[in-house]
Amino acid sequence: MAQPLVKKDDDRDDEADYSPFLGIEKGAVLQEARVFNDPQLDARRCSQVITKLLYLLNQGETFTKAEATGVFFAVTKLFQSRDIGLRRMVYLMIKEISPSADEVIIVTSSLMKDMNSRTDMYRANAIRVLCRITDGTLLTQIERYLKQAIVDKNPVVASAALVSGIHLLQTNPEIVKRWSNEVQEAVQSKAALVQFHALGLLHQIRQNDRLAVSKLVTSLTKGAVRSPLAQCLLIRYTSQVIRESGVNNQTGDRPFYDYLENCLRHKAEMVIFEAARAITELTNVTTRELTPAITVLQLFLSSSKPVLRFAAVRTLNKVAMTHPMAVTNCNIDMESLISDQNRSIATLAITTLLKTGNESSVDRLMKQITNFMSDIADEFKIVVVEAIRSLCLKFPLKFRSLMNFLSNILREEGGFEYKKAIVDSIVILIRDIPDAKEGGLLHLCEFIEDCEFTYLSTQILHFLGNEGPKTSDPSKYIRYIYNRVILENATVRASAVSTLAKFGAMVDSLKPRIFVLLRRCLFDNDDEVRDRATLYLNTLGDGSVAETDKEVKEFLFGPLDIPLTNMETSLKNYIQDPLEEPFDINSVPKEVKSQPLAEKKATGKKPTGLGAPPAAPTSAADAYEKLLSSIPEFAAFGKLFKSSAPVELTEAETEYAVNVVKHIFDSHVVFQYNCTNTIPEQLLENVTVIVDASEAEEFSEVGTKPLRSLPYDTPAQTFVAFEKPEGVPAAGKFSNVLRFTVKEVDTSTGEPEDDGVEDEYQLEDFEVVAADYILKVGVSNFKNAWESMVPETERVDEYGLGPRESLAEAVNAVINLLGMQPCEGTEVVQSNSRSHTCLLSGVYIGNVKVLVRLSFGIDGAKEVAMKLAVRSEDVIVSDAIHEIVASG
Amino acid sequence: MLLAVLIANSEGNILVERFNGVPAEERLHWRTFLVKLGADNLKGVKNEELLVANHKSVYIVYTVLGDVSIFVVGKDEYDELALSEAIFVITTALKDVCGKAPTERLFLDKYGKICLCLDEIVWKGLLENTDKDRIKRLVRLKPPTEF
Lengths: 888, 147
Hints:
Strand order of the largest sheet of chain B: 2-1-5-4-3
Subcellular location (chain B): Cytoplasm; Golgi apparatus membrane; Cytoplasmic vesicle, COPI-coated vesicle membrane
Oligomer: heterodimer
Order of helices and strands of chain B: EEHEEEHHHEEH
Distance between the termini of chain B: 29 Å
Largest sheet of chain B: 5 strands, antiparallel
Subunit structure (chain B): Oligomeric complex that consists of at least the alpha, beta, beta', gamma, delta, epsilon and zeta subunits.
Organism (chain B): Penstemon smallii
Strand content of chain A: 5-15%
Radius of gyration of chain B: 14 Å
Largest interface: A-B, 56 and 48 residues
CATH topology of chain B: Beta-Lactamase
Structural class of chain B: alpha+beta
Number of strands of chain B: 7
CATH topology of the domain at 631-768 in chain A: Immunoglobulin-like
Structural class of chain A: alpha+beta
CATH superfamily of the domain at 631-768 in chain A: Coatomer, gamma subunit, appendage domain
Helix content of chain A: 40-55%
Number of domains of chain B: 1
Radius of gyration of chain A: 35 Å
Number of helices of chain A: 38
Helix content of chain B: 40-55%
Strand content of chain B: 25-35%
Number of helices of chain B: 5
Distance between the termini of chain A: 93 Å
CATH class of the domain at 631-768 in chain A: Mainly Beta
Keywords (chain B): Cytoplasm, Cytoplasmic vesicle, ER-Golgi transport, Golgi apparatus, Membrane, Protein transport, Transport
Family (chain B): Belongs to the adaptor complexes small subunit family.
């Protein structure tokens, strides 16, 4: 028995010894490459050396310039050999070594000779090598041969020239574009691959000529396309033509749809998928058009091949974002994919189901997901958590089971990003669904009892400090917070002290007990913890820091009215040059310095759950509020009611990019113009916007805040403020001109010239509309909220909306007109339905809650009628909503 | 664009890597990512059974053939289906060159031929030849039979 075992081992040793690359070393191989210079070439030996060089290159080894040049010159000697195998290796080697422009000349003549060789295969390979190493000047010399090669009878030669053309089009487009006649001829080739390559190149040459692409598609969709690969290309080009031509209004037919549908019955899976994807991506695709595509995709969901299952579920996932109802038929097949071995497929299936599922299927789905979560990686888990968050916002009544799910997975193992995604989701749910608040806060409390991430603990403590005191029984959170003071590191302890102080400030009944706890913190071994405890005890207690209750709350909860960067600079200066007197926070400038572009983009992002640390703004709204309150001219306008999304006032890629954010106050509006100078040679100074409000009669200008300097690529803001009647949703149109002094900048030194020239730049107009005066604020249970409003405030009327493209379009138009928050997923209209009810909620200027119930109906002639019922806390607001709709 | 073709042995050592349009500084990241992907998922997978993954907007199709694992990475028009076509061509060519599903030694023995085959199949990120018989002839500089 022992004998064969020993023999096997011996075999293995032999095998290892035999490996041709064992102990391979670059220096030695370069030495070996000297055989290329032998007068009597040994073709076999040379091929072996080239193989070794290729092995080194394929392992990621790099050659120095000198080494590469040496190898290249030696390899060119091998053109003398007539050995065919060696010649093939030489072609590959030259491509891999990529000689520099000044060296190329050495091989050009040999390659040109091969290009005119009678041996077809020499021609094909020489073309590929030449195109790889050539530059523009050489290309004009060989262009004639390339054009001939494109229509060569030998398909390999033709393909070599065509694929070279595709690559060369990137670097020398004007030359390659001259070949379009030859390429056109090659498209008709009987060789499948030649047709595929020719089609790809011809489309690239003509991609900006709509008519030519349309003709190409028209002729090829009728004729025979020879390979599945070419068929896929044709489908892509066809969908481009469809996108650009739109639907035939008379017949309602879409051009080329029949072709796409026929492709769904093609024998190659690749073509079927391409056609199905093309159909699902059609603009305003109808259910009738979508159904055959969904049906074939559904069949692939149960394919034995993972690639096909993945492709099918990936496509359906995309469809679910826009047409969730169309995918519901596939739900059963997709549920079986949750246990798919391939985690990418399982995750896509889950996230699709979460988008298409209805309220009744949520619980079943959650059960299935729970089993699945334990065996997927964190990156997939994050996707699932985000999908659950959106599902919960869509079906707020289901918050209990979804919140439980989130809290369960929060207790399990996981990395920081995953845990952060869960915590962010819980925080968003607490903010958006009032009923979920108390339960959610307790889940967070339990999490910080055993949380290994300091960042998350401090964020949760901050959030708890803001939200906890407003709950029905704030005392139950104190234990969790004080535990942090006992058990955690100094950073978390300091956060916990601040949180305790907030409870003390807000809840009088807890104040004495909070004092006891804070006093214990005075003996902490960390400076910051002790300092905070002392500060808060003084603030809340004896009135030495803050005199009134309002001041205390302002101190604890109010924003730091100073930009952090300014504070940092001032402190640094203070430390560098210490003065006798203590640092005075009032000496820090409040003016916001222009931010670099990257930072600017970051603040524009959708606010995430916890946002930034305590001192920084937690959302775009907070950031705007801080920004405006730091400007003395606007400080007296009161509380900011709403800030609009930025409205672009310039086309993309113009000299100056300007957008405007409309800030609405009770009796004022402030327009914040965000300006970017995109010309490196210019510095703009004293930038203002001259606003013509002649078409906005109720507004009168009360002040502007010019921008002192606007350097290149550093966005900054200028403001214009208007007064308007208090609490009234005044509307109007504003025309704008950017006025500034422009100075030339020497780009080498960055120094501007001393003298500048005054100039103006016309911006687009924009409007203040009714929707600017309504905040999007959702309710968790619309029915309860509706019934809790006084029925007498209800105003009902009916409106004809005229002919519309679809019911969904009409619903969207009204939602946008009112600028209110759609509730319970009612903004989604089933694609074939004839009637629809949409529920909206919001807060009207003056902090008046308002709810809207819209009932739509559409008839055969696509005429849409709408019944609008409004209830609000003030009957005047109910009437105002009707006025907005009537005038919109 | 077909961004990468990578062939590794069963221990995750790279045998061939060919990148197209991937910046040099990202290559190491891709190599590590792919090798880990293979280590996590390819155990017990049958020869030529295709696995699929996506990383942001990039698709990866990979499989095992004898002692080697093969990965192809693509984006845009080279989605999972086009990649499975490409990997099918590569596996067929490998079997053809080696005469069977290769052991690591056999693969290294035929290294030069394999490089030539890959050169015929993928050229600077575009799929060029797809038929194994044609590839077999082209690497010997013989014109295709149908011509």
